[in-house]
Amino acid sequence: MKLSTYEPDALPPGARRLSYGLFCWLNRHTTVLRAFGALLRHWPSVGGRLGLAARASAVRDVLTRTRSFSNTAHAANMVSGDYLIGMDPGPTYSADRDLVHARLASLDVPADSDAEAQRRIKALSGRGAGAFDLIEDYLMWVVFHAMRPLFGAATGAVVAGSTTASAQGDVDEGLQRQYMLEIRYVAGQLLAGSLATLDLRRRAEACGDALQARIDRVSGPIGAAWGVKSASEDIERNAVGLAWISHPVTVQSGALIVQELLGRAKVYEELRSKAGKLGEPGVWTDPEFRKIVRNHVLELMRFRPIFPLLARDVPRDTEMETGARYNAGCPGGGKVSLLSIAAMFDPSAVPQSGRFCPDRDWGKNDALRYLMFGYGYRQCPARDHAVEILTSALIGLLTLPRLQLARGEGKAIAYDGPLMLRMRMRTT
């Protein structure tokens, strides 16, 4: 198998722009990736020669063999420094993961996400409905308030990047917005990858440096709020990681599921009808309705995952299962790519995989339902929190009059590479 070992900075500018443009286009047109994945599932030996895994069994095999297929493939795209997502298993990884689990245990989801979703929906309704930006006016605030307990009493200091008295407690929304934009571009580099143009990478690096400086200034309050006595570099590493990965990725996922839902008018109307029959406060308190919406969130994420493609380093010579008659050889020093979206549509593992079916019985393959969060030991530790936050956000949107993309004054959706910056909505 021939694997890529190129150095991204050595790419000619024209080739970089072309490959980056193609990468972004594929991320926005997941049906093309699904079709390509279906071909590779049918001819897995071709995928093996290209270093691509598409069958569910092959993708799971790579994700569970953490020594043979390393997460360090992400490291080059993490401009703000080391974090769990780019580490291999070991003492540092285990200690950091324990700290992250302890911080996640401080969250009160869905109570906080429900409360902020209701507050934001009330504010939008008070403006007479009309047009609003799904990301700027709604999603990023719902996610921010659900994630606030991650930093506990130090949240104000983190957002302000200061330990002054004015940074204690709540800080004004202007500073909160500035903070969220800063971490957005840091996370955007993870989505863009090493194919991003040099201008975009420089911007992400500048934001990454600013985020590191912000956390460095307030590492003392963070350690006190966390009640830990770790070395300052351990606190800073995990605080930086929690800042940029927890918020922007969840916001982007929320925008993607709404985009997918609006493209399924019948599904959207059925959910709105259920919400209308329940009314207030039933939509927020009825456990069966919440379960229905949660199932829809997961199914919408399956059709439009934020990471449809994943990469892994190959530190030493090994073999990759592809589902073909013979395994594919993987020389050390190269990379393999996983079409996670193809794995979630593998008919051998997912019954009627091409059908939109939120209440599908996944049976023994239930773990595959969450493949957009990784798999096995390396699965995102905040998986359930993210799904609950997105469930709260979607419930809120279902209480509004009928939504549609606000067209007519430029494009309703604005992108920055693979990153969705704006999603202008209108109620009718």
From TrEMBL:
Its cofactor is heme. Gene3D superfamilies: Cytochrome P450 (1.10.630.10). Signal peptide: none annotated. The keyword Iron applies. The keyword Oxidoreductase applies. GO terms for biological process: sterol metabolic process. GO terms for molecular function: heme binding; iron ion binding; monooxygenase activity; oxidoreductase activity, acting on paired donors, with incorporation or reduction of molecular oxygen. Keywords: Heme, Iron, Metal-binding, Monooxygenase, Oxidoreductase. Belongs to the cytochrome P450 family. This is Cytochrome P450. It comes from Bradyrhizobium frederickii.
